Amino acid sequence: MLHYLFRRFCTFLLWFAIGSALLVLVFRWVPPPGTMLMVERKIESWADGQPIDLQRSWRPWDQISDDLKVAVIAGEDQKFSQHWGFDFSAMQAAFAHNERGGSIRGASTLTQQVAKNLFLWSGRSYFRKALEAWFTALIEVMWPKQRILEVYVNSVEWDDGVFGAEAAARHHFGVSASALSRQQASLLAAVLPNPREWSASHPSTYVARRAGWIRQQMSQLGGDDYLVGLNHSRSSAPWTQ
């Protein structure tokens, strides 16, 4: 019986690995129709008895402000072009900070956030973290960095039920994602740690100060020039070129 169960378990793992890899490969070219986080938000709204209309409109790379792309990297993951999905130095620093107590600090890269938002549910269990690591590795191997960033800015939540750059730009500033100014882009990036509590269009003193810091970091990264060599800034596998 144990041998039979072990064989079934191994078969399940094999099919899961194949299926998840194929799904990630498809999304390299096909825009994801939605995310698991969007499904989670919808279910939460039904459970609360306050249904919400989710806002999201996919926009391709060249229809999204370069300032926004650089701003989210400056605010969320400045080593994005260098790592393979995991920033171990940031993880060690976050672990040490959390051990000392106080506010919980995360260390998720943009790739990890894409993996979590697109395929998984919220939570901090070891099982979910293991799945996040698996999908993160698949994404880094199969997608170029530009695609990872494109999916990120089209999927991240920027207010309750507001997903992606286009919906966020229109919701907060009444413009398209391509027309976002440098200041507007920095304000959107500034609220990403807590987008359901902080507002880009009505920023608190802290958010405005954080947005100013992000603009400084954008300049230090090189501004729009940072994006030019994004896909070739690390030793990419041949099939990601």
User: Treating each run of at least 4 consecutive H or I residues as one helix, how many helices?
Assistant: 11
Low-confidence stretches: 235-241
Shape: globular
In round numbers, the mean pLDDT is 89
In short:
57% of the residues lie in helices and 2% in strands. The chain is mainly alpha-helical. It has a single domain, classed as Penicillin binding protein transpeptidase fold.
Describe the structure.
With 241 residues, the protein is mainly alpha-helical. It has a single domain (59-240), classed as Penicillin binding protein transpeptidase fold (Orthogonal Bundle), CATH 1.10.3810. 57% of the residues lie in helices and 2% in strands. It contains eleven helices and two strands. It has helices at 2-26, 36-48, 66-76, 88-99, 110-119, 126-142, 145-155, 165-173, 182-190, 205-221, 225-228; strands at residues 157-159, 162-163. A two-stranded antiparallel ribbon has the order 1-2. The longest helix is centred in the N-terminal third of the chain and has 25 residues, at 2-26. The termini are far apart.
How would the blueprint of this fold be written?
Layout: H1 2-26, H2 36-48, H3 66-76, H4 88-99, H5 110-119, H6 126-142, H7 145-155, E1 157-159, E2 162-163, H8 165-173, H9 182-190, H10 205-221, H11 225-228
Identify the notable features of this structure and list them briefly.
Penicillin binding protein transpeptidase fold; two-stranded antiparallel sheet; single chain; disordered C terminus; 2 strands; 11 helices; 57% helix; mainly alpha; 241 residues
